[in-house]
Batch of 2 targets.
Target 1
Amino acid sequence: MTRVALLFAAAALTAGFGIPARAQDTPPGDAAAGKRIYLTTGCHYCHGSAGQGGAYNSVAPSLAKTAMPFVGFKFQLRTPGGDMPAYVEAVMPDQQVADIYAFLQALPGRREAKDIPILND
Amino acid sequence: MPKRRNDSPTLGRRNFLKGAGLVGAAALTPAAAQAQAVAPKANLKAAVPGPAQLAADTHAPTRESVTQSSSGGDFMVDVFKSLDIDYLAMNCASSFRGLHEAVINHGKNKKPEILTCPHEEIAVHMGQGYAKIAGKPLAMICHGVVGLQHATMAMYNAWCDRVPVIVFGGNIVEADKRAPGAEWVHSAIDPGAIVRDFVKWDDQPTSLQHFAESFVRAYKIAVTPPMGPVFISLDAELQENPIRDAETLRIPKLATVIPPQADSGSIAELARMLVAAENPVIICDRLARTPAGMTRLIELAETLQCAVVDNAGRMNFPSRHPLNQSFRRGQLIGQADVILAIEMNELWGSLNAFSDRIVRTNRPITKKDAKIVTLGTRDLYQKSNYQDFGRYQEVDHAIAGDGEASLPALTEAVKRLVDAGRKSALEARGKRFAAARLAMIEQAKSDATLGWDSSPITTGRLCAEVWAQIKDEDWSLVGNGIRITWPHRLWKFDKPYQWNGGSGGAGVGYNTPASLGAALANKQHGRLTLNFNGDGDMMFVPSTLWTAAHHRIPMLYIVHNNRAYHQEVMYLQAMANRRGRGIDDVKIGTTITDPNVDYATVARGFGVYGEGPITDPKDLGPALKRAIAVVKRGEPALIDVVTDPR
């Protein structure tokens, strides 16, 4: 696994433990626009419509309420680790990246598994 | 499919000289015939009959026999029965009508019982799925040319999956026996040529005794590890005509090969390495050949208290066993000082990272000084053309021997080396793994909550809902969508029949029919058989559903309907992004939309209970309950669930 992929995976793992993204590094984004872009530019193909994660050639981490800082998130999009496709600026301008990031932060994220009866077998 | 003309002359060898004589006589008389045709009427007077005419007029005419009291096909059925072949899957065809009729009337459609399949790929794949649950092969038969061409991809899957399927192909060997038309285009001098690269053995018997010996030999070869499909071409004349040498025919005795146990010295050395290692890892793929396989691996792993990474080519290891560390594979393989790879097909892929970039790169994920040992039968039989053996992996020791057969000796050797002090250290290691396993299960449950109420339905929610309905049943999951790991993350697999691996060759179109074959094997045990069936896979041979209904095979199909050949969507996305073009058009040629397929309606059209498309996760539980009730009545059912891609 490459350095960036490790960064992404680590962020995905910590996402469930409530480590917040650094708000001061995050440009403003439009979550509604971000949802549209997320679904039309294929992010959901690997990472799921609800940012729940999925798989491509290997595991694609969950992104809902990602704890990855925006700069790391954008770096991963532009020069991704693993086999993730690169989203260059000509394809996805910085503002769209910010919008997607806002959308991911607005997603419901995890629930307590113990609150869902069928997950308690 | 064209049938043989029933008015075509079928002269046997015994009639050849007589026929030739008649033709010769005709050839000698054209002048006389012409003379008669032009003779004046006045000359048409009754002549005094000669001796030949007299005989023809006064004796009963000589006619070809139109019935027979024995047939080669009957003897062939007797060989099937001797081998305890339960089923003969087929799409009917004239080149094996002789055997087909014999199975029905001589064999009374029992051992083998005919399975009617609308496509040869269904028949072979049913055999693949069946063998992995039943522990023995079934047979299929097809036209040796066009039917075999349909069957080939499924045979390749079985080959890659190391599964025995006995494939027969009808043929008309002798050119002068073929009727004009279809019988010529459906015949070949070497039908096995197109499958020889991915069968273990093939033959074209020329006598019934030859057939009996070939069939028994084929069976023996197919079930000898590494197992695989075999092919026998069946001459139509041999099937159809009377038995000429009944008094000398005999069916040979079958003695299957006892799978070889690894060399005792190698086992002792391997045991020493494993016991001395600080971080040994066992990695396996198609280890469990019989129900004993899982038990044996558990005993070895628990004796060593070492991590097991299960590639899930078979039901090798319980999913919730504390030592099952399959979802930490990268980390553990990277730390391992000894790696024992048992019945792995493509080990390189598990020990190396590979980057699918413009310049494809790779690197080992193992430590430089890690000792790698292979144990299995894979090295004993390889072919060269198709590259299913994967990249060459350097190892320190390659031990030949059947993995499952060799495990008891290895475990005993390990036990002899584990003294009290070492046992204590191993137990401490085991406790760490147990804690990690529990954490993985909790993580999986937490991950499954993401997008819990979303539509399209997440695959995590889908698998959780299914588990809730089946966990108290005697269930068997026999197929899964591509890269869907949820069942093995969330469910408790702990019985040998609860999983049977994948396609082997990654040939799409496996899941629908192979799952049905597995369900057929489970039927006699009353198990609840289910699969997650990718929509792309189901589009290849949806007519499998008719076979399910026709033969009353209880099976729950849960269509993982992401309305795409989704892996290809992502590949196109990768290509388009690599070229900086955006992904707007990657749906072209990769998606199954416009129109969306209504699989529940498709199912009902084939006589199968169908529900869906289900888009609201709240509807899943009730729909599953209803479908499971149908399956428990002994019928197939299908639930179409519109899901997120992965």
Note: The interface with chain B takes residues 1-2, 16, 40-42, 44-46, 48-57, 60, 62, 64, 82-83, 85-88, 90-91, 108-113, 116, 118-119, 121 of chain A (CB under 8 Å).
Target 2
Amino acid sequence: MIRDPNLDLTSTTPASGAASKAKRASVSVSADRKLTLVLMIVFPICAMLATNSFYKSVLVFAMINAIAAVGLCLMLGFAGEISIGQAAFYGLGAYVTAYLANQFHFEPVLAIAIGSAVAMAIGWGISRPLSRLHEHYLAMATLAFGIIMYIVFANARPFTGGLDPGTSVAKFAILGVDLSSMDRYFWVVWLALGLASLVAGNVAATQVGRSLLAVKMSAPAAASVGIDVVRAKAFVFALGALLTGLSGGLYAYFSRSFNASTFGIGYSIELLMMVVLGSLTRVSGAIVGAFIITILPVLFEHFEDYKTLVFGITMVLIMKFMPSGLVEGLFSLGGRLIRRKGD
Amino acid sequence: MLAIRHISKRFGGLQALRNVNVEAERSRVTAVIGPNGAGKSTLMNVISGFIAADEGSVDVDGTRALGLAPHRMCATGVARTFQNLQMFSDMSTVEAVVTGRTRHRKTSLIANLLMTPAVHREEGEAFDAARELLRAMGVPESFWTRRAGDLPYGMQRRVEIARALATEPGYLLLDEPAAGLNDSESAALGEVLLKLAQQGIGVVLIEHDIELVMNVSSRIFVMDAGTVIADGKPAEVRANPDVIAAYLGEEHE
């Protein structure tokens, strides 16, 4: 018998159909880095220009989402591992953080760190049974995982507060210095996003990311050059869960009061939309996608009836004309314009 | 020596391999030929760890290797290519070959996540090694930064061999490398294989192109219906009446 369906030689299609459409040129990593850097400079400028605290909090929320989107980008875009259960890791990060802070009065940074680590451990743990699945089966399994975890969050009321009353945490502070105002918390999240995209960028630029891409493009070939396919998948699940858990921990201190409804399937799908919309293989794309998906609903606030319609049409147009994502599409458009100028 | 002994493998009711013995030496080209369905590719997959054999042993330079997972098999110094091209299509050509260097990477995961100077150095070395291999395989420089999947078929075949060579194998298993190549490409491939053998690599060639096999092989194993029916030097195999009946008679002259 063939030991591992991943290594089925009769299949000539790569492991992930949707993700494989994303083309990737070798010189693009540094362009991705530059755009990420630009974004990291643009955010503080936006924060300064934001006229009221509501817009500022939307910006912070977008950055929190961006951290989770970067995690999913590594999973789906690089390794071809689709996950429709990311809200589970987001919830794990948030609840473990809140629990440690409330029950044991952990320093917030430490609570977030442990929350992220727990999410990472669970991510690593579920990757093993999932490593034999791909495409629709993996999508279904992760969806099921997300649903199960949502039920746990909603019902483990002694720990999570369930749907009602939910849970709340104290103000975010570092060594007693209150950093909970949106102006200050912005920089906390900014730093976290900066670190997350730095690490993700390093994954993309080194053999680590190349091994993940290899697993996505041809698992048999990856194994034949010495890449442990199961380990590579476990790694990317752990890293994706870690970043999403970090995002959840930051969310706990951002909202300060939340209930299980935040961690349903809706959030997993939003994350998926962020990554697909922005870019599958660029860290900067995931960040841009997170911004669009977070901010669009706010912009269309006054057109409540048309919100979903505009949203849907935008998605369809992008999928149709820029199948590998908005950022990818803009990059290739830019490349074409530069070349035309050169002629 | 790559010693394959008493390998048997059954798929349901089909005895795909029955007590197969094949030996390949370093610095030689060893060919395994046979009609379609003879079990050549199954044997290749057993050797490289993709399929578990029911019985038998595979020894690589005296080390027991049967039952190892494919990525561990690679670490024993056995590299392979695939019958259906398995290219890292969306990578650039040079990156696809760099990926073959994975098992020679010394830097840790954490070092990579932090992108330490040692990682930069190692990346540079891996790219240099990959370019060297692409040059040696005759892949024109203009292709190196192109998307690997966009290269002409024959070139992708060469890139696949370069990728396997990047693992620095003691033995290189090639599953029908000449399939889809024209006569001159096929002849060029033959020269490459002989050159690899001169460098000390044991080349194991599974091939339908008899002309190529006869020209480059030191020893030929002929398989039919899951068993080895003959082995010897090209001239001996060509003269063997069993072989002619099973295989050569129909395809050669």
Note: Chain A touches chain B through 38 residues (CB under 8 Å).
